[in-house]
Write a structure and sequence with these properties.
Order of helices and strands: HHHHHHHHHHHHHH
Number of strands: 0
Shape: globular
Largest sheet: none
Strand content: under 5%
Distance between the termini: 33 Å
Structural class: mainly alpha
């Protein structure tokens, strides 16, 4: 009698991958926290709600430069790696059967997460892309990297083309909601679970349909292919030389930060957060810079895992990484219990500096429970 899919035995796991996954999972909360605690528009436009001066500006700046899109990029590449790890030790037919079964379960969990808890779920999109990406599991690293780049480039092409077709004074939907719309969203999420449902369900559906087809599908698929390529080339399994990782850290980190900081300058100084320019052109700096910085994070974590093969940091991050799905869902449960009306109802009341304190508190809970 055949057994079903089960977690990988600890002795067979690649510790550096677990550490990297835990690092990515914790980092994702830095940005998700904005959406848990504030109106959805702040994810793209930080001027849409809340104080953006003094310490709050620097809290936003640090999170934008070092976290926004970086950790989800890293986590997505690791999802691609996970597809290879899950399928490589089984015969092809069995591997696909188990993969599709696991993906269907992930899809169902994602639907429940999105519609019952939080519209910002990414599991549904991961499952849909995973059905497609598994076909590339036997490609060589160069093919994977090349096609990954093509997929990632599609949203840029679509965005820039659309931006050029619009007049300079075009109104961008959702970029700067009216005071009434902001007040309505704040009131909704300070209310009970049923009062939140219409907004949560409609936003989740939008992200899973038009948002998915126009951008998310292409980027996630491309990043999963890159994750496969990085694993097959020995980079994600910590098999390259120390000198290689040092060079990768400097090159990818330097290039990524240069692009991201140029984007900050463009959005804040050149166009002053104008909707058309920021959405269609300014966002591209972080879009590509985040991919480079995520690769730099990979190099940094690989080097750290060589420097410290054990200890509290390795233990904490690897424990979180081994329970990534549970911890991802736990972040939602804890954050919505703090900010939504069926919990403490603090939605829209904390500034960006205070939100960093909430992030640290949730991290502490997750690390203790994971270990």
């Amino acid at each position: 009698m055949e057994s079903g899919p089960s977690p990988t035995a600890p002795a067979e796991r690649i510790v550096s991958l677990d550490v990297l996954r835990g690092f990515a999972l914790l980092g994702i909360l830095l940005i998700n926290m904005w959406v848990f605690a504030m109106p959805f528009a702040v994810l793209q436009n930080p001027t849409a709600y809340g104080d953006l001066t003094g310490a709050n500006y620097f809290a936003w700046l640090a999170a934008h430069v070092f976290a926004q899109e970086k950790f989800i990029t890293l986590f997505t590449m690791l999802f691609g790696t996970g597809i290879i790890l899950f399928t490589r030790s089984k015969n092809d037919g069995k591997a696909l059967t188990l993969h599709y079964r696991r993906t269907a379960i992930l899809f169902c969990i994602g639907l429940a997460h999105a519609y019952f808890l939080w519209y910002g779920d990414i599991l549904v999109q991961y499952a849909l892309c995973g059905v497609f990406v598994v076909a590339a599991r036997n490609w060589d690293p160069r093919e994977l990297a090349r096609f990954g780049l093509l997929f990632i480039a599609v949203p840029t092409l679509l965005s820039v083309t659309q931006g050029l077709s619009l007049p300079a004074d075009a109104t961008i939907s959702g970029w700067q909601p009216s005071a009434a719309a902001i007040a309505s969203e704040v009131e909704t999420y300070r209310s009970g679970w049923f009062a939140q449902f219409d907004h949560r369900a409609s936003t989740a559906f939008l992200l899973q349909t038009s948002g998915f087809l126009a951008g998310t599908f292409w980027r996630l698929t491309g990043l999963m292919l890159w994750g496969m390529a990085l694993f097959k080339s020995g980079i994600l399994s910590n098999q390259r030389s120390t000198a290689f990782y040092r060079k990768l850290l400097v090159a990818a980190g330097g290039g990524g930060l240069a692009l991201i900081l140029t984007g900050v300058w463009y959005n804040t100084t050149v166009v002053d957060w104008a909707g058309r320019e920021s959405v269609y052109f300014g966002a591209q700096f972080n879009y590509w810079g985040s991919a480079l910085l995520a690769v730099a994070y990979i190099a940094a974590v690989m080097l750290y895992c060589r420097w410290r093969t054990e200890g509290p940091v390795i233990t904490a991050l690897s424990s979180v990484g081994r329970t990534a799905l549970s911890n991802y869902l736990l972040q939602t449960v804890l954050a919505t219990s703090i900010f939504y009306g069926h919990g403490l109802g603090l939605f829209g009341t904390l500034n960006r500096v205070e939100l960093l304190g909430v992030v640290a508190g949730i991290w502490a809970v997750q690390i203790v429970l994971s270990v």
